[in-house]
Structures are given as structure tokens and as C-alpha cells.
Design brief:
Number of helices: 2
Structural class: mainly beta
Strand content: 35-45%
Helix content: 10-25%
Largest sheet: 12 strands, antiparallel, barrel
Distance between the termini: 30 Å
Strand order of the largest sheet: 1-2-3-4-5-6-7-8-9-10-11-12
Order of helices and strands: EEEHEEEEEEEEEH
Number of strands: 12
Length: about 170
Amino acid sequence: MKRYTYVPPKLKPSTKRIEVTDEEGNVVCTFQRVYPNAVARVCNYVFDIDWSAQVNVYSTDGLPVIQCKKTTPWFGRPEYIVQHRNTQDIYRVTYTTWQKLAPEFKVTHLNHEYVLKKEVLDWAKFLQAGEELARWKMKPTEWFKTQLEIEAACPIQEPEFFVALFHCIFCIGD
């Protein structure tokens, strides 16, 4: 199992670049929130509206690797799209439950289907066929220090993917 940690920005609309470290304290990637334009940024700061949310994850060289983008239709629940910049792989994330506190999402990529499930005050889990492949947790008692754990059996071993996915959905979210 691989373990990673980071401390997200104190303010949700912040665009500060954050470092993600492994167990030895080495920086494995960085990420930051990106706005599509100045109007969206001002609306987010003033009205706390997150109609468009985007998280870009960068390699240690500063090159973009993964992008997670939230698209909000006029009616219905938002959809998240995670795109790998090098391989152009696209993962679609949609709501399967309408619960606000403990939502459940379906993640699809080609012929693979995963479930992303969040329990109240517990880990957010990334599952396939009931098997836990990765988990993410934010600890309010430790200044919102965030932990990410990826099992060896997980077909996606890139922490960049999970940082973009979990942070965009559970930190920025609705």
C-alpha cells in the first residue's frame, strides 16, 4: 500500500499550488484549483457558487498530468470528468445517489466501472466489485491534513489521478 499526504488550502476558492508528499516526505506531485475565467472566480468568492470547478495536477517537473473538471447542467446533478493529459484517457464520474452527506458516485472508463463512496466522518473509498482499491480522508483535527492510500491491487497507481478526483469532488464539490 502506498500512502500520500497533503494539506489543502485553508480557503475553498484558493488557487494556491499544493504539494503532495509520499511516506518519505518526497514531493510526488502538486495541484491547484483553476478557474475558467475571472467572472467565475469572482462569483465563487462573492456568492460561494461552484458551478465550474477544476483541479489540475502537475508532475514534479511542473507539467500538467491530470485534470478533473466539474460540469453543471441547468437541471440535475453535476458530472465530473477526469482526463489524463498524456494518454488522453477520460474517466466520467456521475452521482448514483442524491444524498448530500454520504454521496455515492459511479466512475466509468472504457469497459471498467468503479464506485466512489463517502461515509460521514470516515474514509471516501474507491471500489471495484466491492473490493477497496484506494481511500481518502481529510482530518479536521489536524488542520485538514489529507491522507490518500492506494492498495497494491489497484489498477490505477497514480496518486495524481486520486488527488484530482477526491479533491475536486469532496473539497470543492457542490
